[in-house]
Structure formats: C-alpha cells, structure tokens
Design a protein that fits this description.
Length: about 425
C-alpha cells in the first residue's frame, strides 16, 4: 500500500526541523546538568548509540518520569508475574524517572533513556531492542517514534492515556502530523470518557480508543506502610502533621507562608515537605531555616525529631510512605498552573487531601474525589491554609474524608485487568511448560 504523500511531506518537514534544532538538545542537557548532575551522564542513550549487542527481543514500556513510572507499577509487576519469559525494557526521559525504575525493579528490567524523536535515533533504538510491542504511558505522542513502530510492525498501545483540553490545544500546530501518527496506534486505552473523546478529536479513529479506566486506582498499598508511619510518629512525637507534596519552585514561598500561619494556631505543628524535583531539596531546606525553624532532612536525620518544625523528604520513592505519616496532605502543582499531581496516592494511604485550583491534568479524578467528600479544592493560598487549619482541628472530618477516599478507590479498581486483556493478544505465545 503506497504511503500517504502528505504524511511523507509532514514527516520530512518535522524531521528537518528536529535536526536543525538538535544542537539545542545539547545546550538543554548542559543547562539541566548544572541543576541536576545526572543530566551530564548517559548522553549516548539519548541519541541511541549503544555499546552492548542488540537484543533478541523485548517488551517495551515507556514512562516519561516518576509519575508515569509509579502509574505503571501495577502493570509492570503483573507482566513480570504473568510473563516471566519476556525481557521487559522500561524507558524514561528524566533522571528521576530512571532512579525510580532502578529503585523499584533494580536489574529485573532493562532500562535506558528514550532517545530524542530523530528518525535515525528512533531507527537505531527500535533496531537495537526489537520490541514485541510498545506500551506508552499516558501522553507521549512522538510522531517519528509512532511511525517507526508502524514501519517495523511493532504494535503500539497508549496506556492509562490522558489528554487534557489544554494539551489538546497545544497539539493544534502539529495536529495534521500527530493525528496521522495516532492512527498508527493499535489501541488507546483512555482513563476516562473525556480523555477518549479528546484523542478522537486529535485524530484517532473511534474504534482505536477504549475507556479502560485509570491504572492509578489499582495502586497497591505496601504492607510496611503502617509500621513506617508508626516509626515516624514515634520519632516526631504526638503532634499534628501536614505534608506539602510534589511542590514546585513557584509554590515554595506559599508553603512557607501557610506553615507560618498554621504554626501560629498549632505551635507544635510539623511540616513534611517533599518537593517535586530533586534540585529543589536543598533550596527548600534553606528557605525553611531562613524562616527561623528547626529543619531536618530524610537523607541526614532519617526521621523528624520532636523539636523539628520542618522535615524535608529529600529522597525518591518514599512519598507514599510519608503521606501515611501525615494528618492532612497538600498536593502541589495546584497553586500554580502546573496542572496538579497524583491525588490517589494520599487517598490510598488514608490521608485527607487539600489542593489548589489548578488541576487541569487531573480534572476527572479531582471531580470524583471532591464529589465523594475526599478532597478539598481551595481557590488560592489563603483558602488552602483555611482548609488545612480546619482539618487539622477536626479529626472526625478527616476520618470521613479518608473513608470516602478508600471507597472511591475500591470502586475505581479494574483498569489493570482490562489493560492486560488488551495486551495479551499482542504478546508472543508463552513457552510450553
């Protein structure tokens, strides 16, 4: 079947633009490296130059960063149990995502960075790892990658797929190309009806898109969580605790202001502070000290002391555990137009949740949690402080919110089973026992 000439023209223009802009990727890695030194490492992977021998075949899953890796945990663990004969390759783009992959699975999965969407790099990557199938988490729509998979006969599944109205508008300039690339995908397993509809608007055929639900509802709470929380409380003492989780740089002054206000009402209040990006760990600790508070960090003190006012969680992969240590959680990325972060983890741990108003990446989940009585969405910094103050002083309301969160999570489970049902026909036959 001849290729679409418009597709060839669009791909050529897109690829030419990427090659012209390729030198900027080096400047970007250097700039990021000064803030996070891991960006100075493993450049070969980002351009798909590999020193090891090509793989016989893999089952490839791509998760751009920590949030997507965490969402993929139930799926990866299920695939490892169900198909231990397959070599799993997990790619990320960020060093924090890379560290999370290693922390979760060590050497049980292969791991590299996904290369830039240059035709040559994509071809080398696919030729080196020879995937049976490509499982792409959430919203990573790289045209050359999707076309490259089609040209090599690799079925692509976009899993836990989400596409906000804002992201849909952002794809407008490239919509003719992205829409064509999207139509090469085997299945888009959307989180919600609204996400499914937006993927169709972007260019997917209706028969490609299914509403599979959100894998984050299938989050597993570790058996060790209760013991972790008890130990944290034993070190911190019997006092109120709130956590500011996944905060961004522009929200840091607001967290300081909220904690100062809350400490005036609750003098022994402890703040657990988990910034979204590792390069902010030291900065938030310094800001808290400059505010006049006693500060400890997870990497040095391990646990908050009884006299600490702020405890900075400067490690990766422990946010869920520290949610369980708090009475109330503020989930960041919501006081600035970032779009919010995962609200289901604190719900799973039994923590009352407060956010700011900017939740465009999690509209449906936020609506469902708020409607169930498990979430307070506050309009600004002052309202966030009011909500936290109210909940810190009302144990009955906190208990009601956490119960509502657990019930909502239980009702939303099932995306994992539906996703596995979609994938099984695309996997090679399992070896005979």
């Amino acid at each position: 079947m001849p290729k679409d000439p418009i597709e060839r023209l669009l791909r050529a223009a897109y690829s030419a633009a990427l090659y012209l802009l390729a030198p900027i990727t080096i400047y970007h890695l250097i700039w990021r490296g000064f803030r996070q030194p891991a960006y100075f490492q493993r450049w070969g992977e980002r351009y798909a130059t590999f020193r090891d021998a090509p793989h016989a075949s893999t089952l490839w899953l791509h998760a751009v960063s920590v949030g997507e890796v965490n969402a993929a945990v139930p799926l990866v663990n299920a695939l490892r149990r169900e198909r231990p004969d397959l070599t799993l390759l997990v790619t990320t783009i960020t060093p924090t995502g890379s560290e999370r992959v290693r922390a979760l699975w060590a050497d049980a999965v292969e791991h590299v960075y996904l290369p830039y969407d240059l035709p040559g790099a994509v071809g080398r990557f696919l030729g080196h790892y020879r995937p049976h199938a490509a499982l792409i988490m959430e919203t990573e729509l790289w045209p050359n990658l999707l076309f490259g998979c089609r040209d090599r006969g690799v079925p692509v599944f976009i899993l836990n797929a989400r596409l906000s109205a804002r992201s849909l508008r952002g794809y407008r300039v490239l919509a003719p190309l992205v829409g064509r690339a999207l139509r090469t995908v085997r299945t888009v397993a959307a989180q919600s009806h609204a996400d499914a509809r937006r993927f169709v608007v972007l260019g997917a055929h209706a028969h490609q898109v299914v509403e599979a639900g959100n894998l984050k509802f299938d989050v597993a709470v570790p058996d060790t969580l209760a013991a972790f929380a008890r130990e944290c409380r034993a070190h911190a003492g019997a006092r109120p605790v709130w956590i500011a989780a996944s905060t961004h740089e522009d929200e840091e002054a607001e967290v300081i202001a909220i904690h100062r206000r809350l400490r005036a009402r609750h003098p022994d209040l402890l703040l657990l502070w988990a910034p979204r990006h590792p390069e902010r760990f030291r900065a938030v600790a310094e800001q808290a000290r400059a505010a006049g508070w006693r500060v400890a960090t997870r990497s040095q003190a391990r646990w908050p002391g009884r006299d600490d006012a702020v405890f900075v969680v400067d490690t990766l992969g422990e946010l869920m555990a520290f949610y369980a240590c708090a009475d109330v959680a503020f989930v960041g990325g919501s006081l600035q137009p970032v779009g919010g972060h995962n609200l289901l983890e604190p719900a799973a741990t039994g923590t009352a949740i407060v956010t700011g108003p900017h939740l465009h990446n999690f509209v449906e989940i936020a609506h469902r949690l708020e409607s169930a009585g498990a979430l307070v969405v506050a309009g600004d910094t002052a309202a966030v402080g009011d909500a936290l103050d109210q909940l810190l002083g009302d144990e009955a309301e906190r208990i009601a919110m956490t119960r509502a969160g657990h019930e909502l999570l239980d009702s939303g489970r099932g995306a994992l089973a539906r996703t596995l049902d979609l994938l099984r026909p695309a996997l090679p036959p399992a070896p005979a026992p």
